[in-house]
């Protein structure tokens, strides 16, 4: 039966790949030409992670839609995997960026916008003191380095299945019951498990045991796991996480790069979390590369003490582009004009419509699927009930079925995030686009029902 299913899924994929290649001649030709100078035919290898047999070359994005070079229009529920969460080509950001670029992109000096952005960040997210970075990867690395400097401890704790950007310390998973470096990790010469501890998400007892030795500088966590399939925190988990870290003298770093979809102040403000460090990247500058990280006043004072204790020299934190004038102009526009309560209300209403539609498909077609969401971010999980940790999610993840769904959607004019079944609703996503996505998923469920 499993072999028959594999052959049938393979047949479906073969048909969908042939359809894609026939309907995207210009993208296919561009990929072949680009391959002469870009490895794999694209400027960044993640652009080859889509289910399509050749990269889709985008011509433009407007609102919540993308047009490719073959003239095909897509309803975009990927939105750049979050940087364009509020829509492509936002007029406020475009005007701010256009004005600033004429006056200079970066000076290695603060601008008037920087003072305003700092105030807006503090008001919105609740932490009083901030620093800028170019990506969330940079921000997380800075937070980890400061945590070690402040506490004098070597170990970082993460949750199995996490992803926090290109941060070496986070590339550790649970394998056969113990810590191991992630499979496929390139060029890593040091054993990361020596200074990174990993436990399952939602496992309070494992968390307490991992903190017990007193050598953990910081826990780095998303409030909702979103990078191994969406995994929601169980009741009481965040309260226990904060209590246990405080009891252990361990700092808590909350990475809201994805969960900013929850509301104007992120999951942290919506659920009353109390991180020592708050990290946000991607959407904060509307697609202009930028990130920010904020700290409590108490931690800031400890950072000053650590700096004085260590003495002068290079901190190893920061890059020349961090906090540049262009990014500050974009962040100012986003925080004051785009990331509004009204925009979030539209996003959340759209997400509720999408969740209801997908659950309607599941109720009618009866696949063993479920729907999980946080704010405007929605995940279709090929398991019911939804997994509570990464180990369960790995067992549920059928890579061939995921590939088939993604390619099916692409061929029907819908884009979702390429890494698993994650969908993001923007404030400019209209109801008709949501309904088209639901109809396409329904068609896929029907096709899968025929296979089964």
TrEMBL record:
The keyword Signal does not apply. This is Glutamate-1-semialdehyde aminotransferase. One of its GO terms (molecular function) is pyridoxal phosphate binding. Keywords: Aminotransferase, Pyridoxal phosphate, Transferase. Belongs to the class-III pyridoxal-phosphate-dependent aminotransferase family. It comes from the Bacteria. InterPro entries: Aminotrans_3, PyrdxlP-dep_Trfase, PyrdxlP-dep_Trfase_major, PyrdxlP-dep_Trfase_small. NCBIfam families: PRK07046.1. Its cofactor is pyridoxal 5'-phosphate. It comes from Caulobacter vibrioides OR37. Pfam families: Aminotran_3.
């Amino acid at each position: 039966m499993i072999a028959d299913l594999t052959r049938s899924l393979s047949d479906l994929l073969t048909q969908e790949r042939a359809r894609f290649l026939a309907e995207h001649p210009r993208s296919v030709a561009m990929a072949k030409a680009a391959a002469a100078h870009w490895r794999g035919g694209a400027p960044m290898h993640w652009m080859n992670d889509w289910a399509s047999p050749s990269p889709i070359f985008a011509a433009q994005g407007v609102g919540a839609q993308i047009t490719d070079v073959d003239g095909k229009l897509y309803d975009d529920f990927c939105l750049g995997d979050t940087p364009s969460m509020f829509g492509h080509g936002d007029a406020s950001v475009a005007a701010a960026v256009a004005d600033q670029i004429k006056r200079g992109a970066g000076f290695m000096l603060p601008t008037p916008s920087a003072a305003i952005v700092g105030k807006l960040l503090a008001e919105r997210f609740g932490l009083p003191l901030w620093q800028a970075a170019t990506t969330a990867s940079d921000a997380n690395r800075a937070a980890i380095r400061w945590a070690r400097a402040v506490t004098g401890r070597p170990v970082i704790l993460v949750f199995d299945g996490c992803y926090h950007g290109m941060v070496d310390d986070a590339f550790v998973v649970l394998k056969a019951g113990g810590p191991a470096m992630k499979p496929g990790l390139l060029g890593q010469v040091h054993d990361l498990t020596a200074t990174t501890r990993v436990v399952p998400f939602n496992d309070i007892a494992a968390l307490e045991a991992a903190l017990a030795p007193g050598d953990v500088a910081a826990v780095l966590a998303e409030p909702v796991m979103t990078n191994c399939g969406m995994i929601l925190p169980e009741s009481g988990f965040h309260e226990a996480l904060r209590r246990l870290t405080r009891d252990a003298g361990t700092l808590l770093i909350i990475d809201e790069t994805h969960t900013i979809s929850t509301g104007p102040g992120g999951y942290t403000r919506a659920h009353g979390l109390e991180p020592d460090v708050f990290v946000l990247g991607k959407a904060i500058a509307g697609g202009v590369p930028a990130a920010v990280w904020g700290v409590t006043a108490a931690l800031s004072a400890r950072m000053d003490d650590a700096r004085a204790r260590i003495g002068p020299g290079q901190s190893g934190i920061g890059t020349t582009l961090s906090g540049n004038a262009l990014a500050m102009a974009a962040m100012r526009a986003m925080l004051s004009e785009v990331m509004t309560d009204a925009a979030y209300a539209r996003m959340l209403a759209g997400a509720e419509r999408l969740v209801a539609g997908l659950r309607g498909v599941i109720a009618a077609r009866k696949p063993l699927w479920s729907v999980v969401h946080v704010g405007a971010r929605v995940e279709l999980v090929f398991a019911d009930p939804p997994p509570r940790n990464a180990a369960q999610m790995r067992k549920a993840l059928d890579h061939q079925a995921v590939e088939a769904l993604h390619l099916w959607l692409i061929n029907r004019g819908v884009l979702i995030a390429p890494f698993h079944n994650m969908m993001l609703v923007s404030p400019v996503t209209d109801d008709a686009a949501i309904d088209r996505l639901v109809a396409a998923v329904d068609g896929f469920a029907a096709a899968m029902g025929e296979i089964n």
